[in-house]
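tool_log.txt
---
The assistant was asked to compare two proteins side by side. It first ran the structure predictor on the initial sequence, then on the second. Raw inputs and outputs are pasted verbatim so the downstream comparison step can read them without reformatting.
(1)
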Amino acid sequence: MEVAIPKSLEALVRRKVEEGHYATEVEVVADALRLMQVRDEVGAVKRERLRDALARGYEDIAAGRVVDLETDDQIDAFFASL
């Protein structure tokens, strides 16, 4: 597979090799893709944790486990206590 690198990124790729961080330009691109994969995986985990937290929140609401906060001071105090 051949991939064209935008001119704006070519200098970065070359610099990484010249500085000795990578042996070849291919290694730079491969590492960038691995980092993208990790970022995507982390994002998926965060979304799943958010879904779980929302589900627990809805369950708490349905069970009446809620705290009414009506003023800014009450809200600030609540978050300060976490």
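(2)
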Amino acid sequence: MNAHEIKEALLWCVAINYAVLFIWFGVLILAHDLLYRLHTRWFKLSVETFDSIHYAGLAIYKIGIILFNLVPLIALYFSS
């Protein structure tokens, strides 16, 4: 694999992962009550705990995208 192919793959990874992040955020905003009822069937959660878990999950996922996809992509663009 050459640098161009790696850049292209990382760019696709960034795009797909950000699409997943935006879908997750959109579903959480638009169907919050439905998701909360679904999760409370399995787990005993308050609304505040549910929101905290999803907010933390979104933050960790976003940091993972930046750390593992975006930073290497930017480094490859600067190095070439």
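---
observation on (2): The chain has a mean pLDDT of 97. The chain has three helices and no strands.
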